[in-house]
Backbone:
């Protein structure tokens, strides 16, 4: 589904046109370019675009079928970039992923989106507001999209930092919480983020080094900035992953300590009942000569003895930390 | 056993010939090539082929004896490639492996298969249907075979993703399941996949970089595509492996938590019987003056007392989560 | 907030001037340079500086917004460096972080600080005392700041060494201490340090290799010295991290051993009461012919028997290490 | 001790000679070379050889003293190679190691062996049977020895695969086996293999790349083959090592699960005896009015009650998997 | 403190001189050099040497203050090397560290030692005995010192191998030993060794590659030998470290197995007393019609019954491995 299409000239949007071939034909002045935005296109639908803009069949296949790895490919003098998009769904504490494929030629940009959460419309609006960036042509669009996507990575990573902090608090809290599954889920989310961030580093590094033909020379510092943000996301993810591993270890230790505490509590509790039972056993013996049995207050005495012994044990266990 | 042999000219199959030497002699026009497919050949059988096509003795040895590492070798102006094939056997939840060796010369392809599950016949049929790909000669055959094998890797990996999801669900389910052995088996399967995928990356990267002489220049983007799929398989396998490690850790934690729960349940259960036993012990004492013993309803009173205490303990343990 | 600004000529401070544009204009002789120190500037405030010194917008953005990754960037013929600062807060046993951004041109240095604990004022005073270093211009300032920051890293690392030693002592002490959380917190602090140290290594290596234009050639040995200190900090951090992992493992082992000890102690304790209870049970049997029951000293005999058996068990358990 | 010495000319063995200096003097035609095989030589003994063949003192020292790291060194125009040999001792399930040092000059090979299990005699016989290989001179000998040694690595690795399979079966068997020590021993053996295989990879890679002067150009594919086998050994060893780690984890999990099962079995067993004891306690109470006590069949009734309750518990525990 | 100083000419020691400036002045013939050995010099003391030999201030600072990282630096045409020395203190089973700094110029060597255990005096004596090595000038001294220090590394590593073997034996012994702390301490020692060995590898590799100006060309094979020994030390340390990790895991498993064994022993022991107690309980019931109570040998019968049942349980537990 074509979402938006327009011709840009000298940093400004010129009226759109539904006929893309005609639109491209009008991009005849230097710096002119057409930007077509597509969302989850069918194969047939996209075939038409591929013909108009001369897109390479392999790239077209990748763009139509989602679930690609982030990558940057050159076909002749056009560039093909695949990106994963990430966003954090608060209700589910989960990271969702989408995909953007970008075709960049001298005079056109074709952007293809998959997935619900990520949209490029506001990116286009912001870009249209920045005459200067737009004036850099398709390279400017590339930067704008990359910058936005990587900023979203950082936002997702910040949410995960919060989640890890919560898990940490829960691990070291006195409550019995099932932190193992939360840690597992977070590790899984981090894997998701890693799958988006890591393979993108090399393409962005190439852009930052200015070695990708078709991208303007002066753009390198901007891509270095993106590369830097990407590196920050990657480092934070690695840091969180290793923190979670430590947190998991700590959780295991807490379980063991707790089991030990429980075991000692149980034993102390058992002693409180077993020792009086022993006393009852003694006074249940059938010896003919047991003076206490004949005492008037023998029975109360026995009960008192039991209570005293149990109380003494209680105090002793309390003091030695077993209860 | 020779499975199929044919001469290809201008992207089309020309009639086959059982006499391979004659067949090769007919491949005299530019672009002509012979493709001989062999399955688990005996040493003698293959020696004959080696003479006809001038194959290098070291490569012949590797092709006849299976269990080689994936690799790409150049001998003079011919190329020798060894691949592992993978397929997933649903009944056994297991990954099976086979092997394909390919000899590529200017005017011939010799493919050698080992193992039952992988066949090249449909690959040949598909290739014969694509005049264009076939027109690229031995390089086209190389691409077709590689593409197919790597696509099968991705299918196997997808099945493993499902298996890991199942294990994960089982680990966090309330049932007592022996997940350790399932995780172990899956790790083993992942090792199998890794052994096929990892050593193939370097050869395919060389093909993708276009630095292997004997492979046509324009083919590089196609091999880059294969390389990319391979990278995806490799990354997914790594991701699954680390997920399994986390799942195993979580499994260990679950066992500990369960043991703790069991221990507390047992202790609570013990208390329910030990405390009434104590009461019985008290009324089994032989003191002469124990008023309750003379009560008409002393016995029911004692039973009621036991039931009340046990019931109170039950409620208390239920509330504090021990039962 | 501008903290200090001054013109330096031939290694000495020339009187300051509040009007920075005028100050820079006076830096007209070779070797002259202006050093402006700023603390947590607002965007507007800093915009003015950026104009006077011609700072690159991307760098300005990074300098104003803190939480950047350590990095070294070149924009035209000026250099932009971001550093993390670390200091150890004794009361909290915690590592705090701040940030310094440095802009270096041919004739100016702009230093921007974020965070409370790190100050550059004494660095400036020391530098002003060293005419020779100051004579090297902005490169000298760069060295002085880097040297100071990295020295602070080493101090922080030394404090962490002490903390790890304490944790180690606590793990192997006989007391029941909750070392898991202390180890976790220390791992977290080490992660903090790593986040400052690791990304700085590459920029400093470039300075040490003398490949950063704008930094004087003869300065390389000095930056090699800084690079070396940085490597020392990094290696110590890695060493501490792996020591902590081992300490954690040892802690887990201690918990298990302790639980085992407790279990045996409890069992031995239980035996001391259960065996006499059994004896009491025997003499509570109602057989008509039990000679002991009629003995004059039957009761004392039974009590003595119980005490003897319990005493014997006690000695036996003590000797076999169960009590 | 000199084991064998001979002159080889045009791919055939010429009669030996005890006087090595004379033997070497006779190696005057192109392609002629002398091969001297030595076993655990004394320093003096070897000094004599060193003089005759002009061996470098550092290499001589390494050859006489065993326990060197595998390495390839060039001294002038001769090559010095140190190899570890491995063999598997079935009785002990253990990997034994030996050492071979090879000196290769234009017209001589000196091979020095340490350790009992590896012998070069059959390698020499095989080589003498292959006129072609022998015709390649010292380079051919180098290949023959390397090929044989690396093939032995693969055999040892195959034995270890079998051992790991056994351990695996034992870990997941229902029997209580002490797998921890078997896994440890296997890890140790793998370390032994790794110490032989890993450092050899770089020298063989150099031989395979054809960058070692003194080794004939056409030999590269043969050394690539060796390199490939070495890579296979290395990958298998890594795979086994990580499998063993997983197996160990699984073993730990099995122990925990078993402990849990035992604990529940014990508790269930305890319940079977504790509950009847409680019933006995009830009928041991001394209330005056307990109707059952007067029943004719009160005693059998009580025994039946105990049996019924115990039987019911048994069934219940069986059904809930505790017994 | 200056320990020794002398002029060396043509491979022999010429009489020493307390006035170092004069001594250096006499080193005027080609190949002459002065070797000054210093032990823990004060800053002032060393300043004087620095002036005489023209040492770089940064190197002087590092040489006077110990606790540097091993490194090789070039200042102009002189070389500065820092080494860690290691030795094993048998009484404490501990690795001690010291430090050596070496300044090498065309005509001088200044060696600075820190710490007690390492001395260079015997190295100097040995060197003086070897006219040939001494004839290589400062480069020969460098080799002699490096060779000696690295040989000491190997000795320390050999001691640690013995320690690891002991720990291993202790882990798998039947005794209850606290191996966790021994393993921890050994890991710590290995870290100490690693800190000496690892950073030295790169400098020695540079020496072995012959790329350090100021070191004679022909010396490369000698430094390759040192490099090789260093690699051996590093590999052994890595191997020991991973063995210790495995040993620790095995230790954890042993603890668990032991706890399990203890638990079953305790339960079996409990059964031996609880079942007879139940029998006593039965004969303590107050039914009017209990035939056994009236038997003449009822009491002995009951005792025998208890003993029989306990004996039977004992046999059964023994056979099933619980006792």
Residues:
């Amino acid at each position: 589904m074509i979402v938006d299409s327009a011709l840009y000239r000298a940093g400004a949007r010129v009226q759109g046109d539904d006929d893309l071939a005609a639109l491209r034909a009008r991009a005849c002045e230097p710096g002119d370019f057409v930007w077509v935005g597509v969302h989850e296109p069918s194969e047939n639908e996209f075939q038409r675009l591929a013909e108009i803009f001369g897109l390479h069949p392999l790239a077209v296949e990748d763009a139509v079928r989602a679930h690609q790895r982030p990558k940057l490919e050159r076909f002749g003098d056009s560039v093909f970039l695949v990106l994963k998009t990430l966003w954090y769904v608060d209700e589910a504490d989960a990271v969702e992923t989408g995909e953007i494929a970008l075709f960049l030629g001298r005079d056109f940009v074709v952007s293809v989106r998959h997935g619900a959460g990520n949209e490029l419309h506001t990116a286009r609006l912001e870009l249209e507001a920045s005459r200067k960036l737009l004036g850099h042509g398709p390279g400017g669009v590339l930067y704008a999209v990359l910058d936005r996507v990587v900023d979203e990575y950082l936002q997702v990573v910040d949410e995960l930092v919060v989640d890890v902090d919560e898990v940490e608090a829960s691990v070291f809290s006195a409550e019995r919480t099932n932190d193992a599954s939360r840690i597992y889920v977070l590790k899984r989310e981090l894997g998701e983020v890693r799958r988006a961030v890591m393979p993108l580093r090399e393409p962005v590094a190439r852009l930052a080094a200015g070695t990708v033909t078709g991208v303007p020379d002066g753009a390198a510092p901007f891509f270095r900035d993106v590369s830097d943000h990407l590196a920050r996301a990657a480092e934070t993810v690695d840091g969180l992953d290793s923190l979670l591993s430590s947190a998991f270890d700590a959780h295991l230790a807490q379980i063991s300590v707790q089991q030990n505490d429980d075991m000692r509590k149980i034993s102390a509790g058992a002693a409180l009942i077993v020792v009086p039972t022993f006393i009852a056993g003694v006074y249940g013996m059938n010896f003919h000569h047991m003076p206490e049995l004949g005492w008037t207050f023998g029975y109360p005495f026995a009960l008192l003895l039991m209570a005293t012994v149990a109380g003494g044990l209680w105090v002793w266990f309390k003091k030695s930390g077993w209860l």
Chain C touches chain E through 43 residues (CB under 8 Å). The mean pLDDT of chain C is 89. The two ends of chain C are 69 Å apart (CA to CA). The domain at 2-254 of chain C is CATH 3.30.460.20 (Beta Polymerase; domain 2).
